[in-house]
Amino acid sequence: MVTSNLINNPSSTSTATFSKSNYQYPINASSLLNNRALHHLSALPTKVSTFSKFHGYPLGLSSTHTSQVHDSSSKFSHLSTVYAFPPGFSPKPISHIPRAATDPEANPEAESSVPEPNTKSKSKSNTLQLAIVFGFWYFQNIVFNIYNKKVLNIFPFPWLLASFQLFVGSIWMFILWSLKLQPCPKISKPFIIALLGPALFHTIGHISACVSFSKVAVSFTHVIKSSEPVFSVVFSSFLGDTYPLQVWLSILPIVLGCSLAAVTEVSFNFQGLGGALISNVGFVLRNIYSKRSLQSFKEVNGLNLYGWISIISLLYLFPVAIFVEGSQWIQGYHKAIQAVGKPSTLYIWMLLSGVFYHLYNQSSYQALDEISPLTFSVGNTMKRVVVIISTILVFRNPVRPLNALGSAIAIFGTFLYSQASASKKKGSEKKD
């Protein structure tokens, strides 16, 4: 028989007997422990230390004495004595929920009991978000192309207009950075050096497209610019990339459609055709060069990257614009004012072309962040269709049946290319 005296008040003690097997353990407990608690302790002798931690030790009751009743493997009461945890606290949180109810491994049915999210509502929200992104992107692109062409029709100086559009975009980014609406990236010498190449090719692509817009119909320029995947595959192949046969086959209708559209174009002009082709080369080289030179600056988001490319492109372009056509600007300005009647009209058109040029590029970067590259590529293809149809309706450009057929074939080829290139990426990811 083992007896443990638990002293709270020397004058007031009570004795409780706990039976385990054939042995009895009379314990003198304080009057603070009622008979119900003692009965609970006798039923679960291994939980006494845990009970002490939840309810605190009564005055005069130490964990050292209580541990004589327990298995020697229990260490929690010893920890509370050594580290002096306050009454009512334990060194480790204790959960009253069984492990099987919370641990998926212990209870596989626990995962299935969690209600699944409403997939239909989630799908509807994603569709709505995608529609908003594409809606803004298309609208801004249409507005830019319309007012860009309106300015060039009365003020045919693409070098100055292209410079002004880059200037507006640069001011726009400085406003966003100043108001902290967009986090300003950290500028370093290696970052600026890495941007010099992409900015140069962006400048070539932008000014060449603007020259093409000034010489031919907007719809024709966009049909030729839809051949950009052809240049992308060719230049990337020279640099060591390999493409499956389906990618090469997808660019054949692009070449065929662009050729048919060029031959049947009413407003055909070699400068317009050359400008659109050079623009494709410039933007393809910008994309290729950006992947190689900006690998170590992935922390810079797409919008900030485009902002700094615009600023450096402006520094590239404007001095050359002064040299190429600066002597004609004043005379051309007076002719433009005579054509529109009010100077404010010309100013508003130029400002709209500059603002929406930057906005549609900004939206394209944001759309690329929100959606997959394949969806973006398909959306970009459909964007050209929407822009071509819109500008034909606005400017009432005559379209021959063969010209429309060639444009459709070229656009369809671009769609096939986006599908083929997407399957190539999936195949390379599976190999990795």
UniProtKB/TrEMBL annotation:
Matches recorded under InterPro entries: EmrE-like (IPR037185), Sugar_P_trans_dom (IPR004853), TPT_transporter (IPR050186)
SUPFAM superfamilies assigned: Multidrug resistance efflux transporter EmrE
Any one Pfam family match given in the protein's UniProt record, by short name: TPT
Gene Ontology annotations for the cellular component aspect, listed alphabetically: membrane
Subcellular location per the Swiss-Prot or TrEMBL entry: Membrane
Region (Disordered) location: 96-122
Segments crossing the lipid bilayer: 128-147, 159-179, 191-214, 270-289, 305-324, 344-360
Highest taxon in the source lineage: Eukaryota
Signal sequence, start to end: none
Keyword terms of this UniProt record: Membrane, Transmembrane, Transmembrane helix
Membrane topology per record: Multi-pass membrane protein
Boundaries of every Sugar phosphate transporter domain copy: 128-418
Keyword Cell division: no
Protein name listed in UniProt: Sugar phosphate transporter domain-containing protein
Organism: Quercus lobata
Gene encoding the protein: LOC115987991
